[in-house]
# Entry
Amino acid sequence: TKFENVIVRRPGKSLCDGITSAPELGQPIYERAIEEHDDYIEALKQCGVAVTVLPALEEFPDSCFVEDPAVITRCGAIITNPGADSRNGEKEAIEPTIRLFFDDDKVKHIVAPGTLDGGDVMMVGDHFFVGRSARTNEEGIRQFIEILEGWGLSGSEVPLEEVLHLKTGVNYLEDGNMLVSGEFIDKPDFAAYNKVVVPEDEAYGANCIWVNGTVIVPEGYPTVLKAVQDLGYKTLVVDTSEYRKVDGGLSCLSLRF
Ligand code: CIR
# Structure
């Protein structure tokens, strides 16, 4: 895998109204979120990708999490049908940008009653693991796998019990290496990979992203950082603490392809 492009969207002031499971962390501070986003874009550029920066959409508080309304594969793009009502309209907002990169016959859609969030999709080569979650339902997964198979790719369902999205708790670093936390540590689906177990007190750190040989790690997760470095990866550290307040992490903030 080699990524050439990344799409991000600036957070809006409405980020403070984003959906959260952790209100005790407080609301994101907009000015700080912007600084963190600047650092994130800089880190991505250091990984040798061209970064397309979309403008903030105040009407969608969670729209900086561009990973959810689209999934991009090496064969084509899938516009999803996000499972949270307040986020569903993000699919129309992202589609024109996706079409700049893909011909019409390479853009597919997940449609109602199917729902799917891109955060539930983990790419491992030509196979895609799909979390069945509060956001992604059985019909969404069925449609998604049908589209993949039409392109000669494959997919399989992974039921989730605890976390929001699949990639909240498990992330593939390429080269057979997988960061796993919590409910994913013992899942048979991932038995064939070199699993690096993330301790419970650093669970948020499981959401790292591999970009062309470099792994971007969130700031403040020393055990995860060391484990990734011990695997031989070059690392970059980016603070995502404002996004964490609304359940967002490194992977959610970009589409990489
Ligand atoms: C949400 O609940 O949809 C946002 N507050 C966080 C989305 C995080 N995205 C992701 O894990 N892919």
Observations:
- The mean pLDDT is 98.
- DSSP finds six helices and 15 strands in the chain.
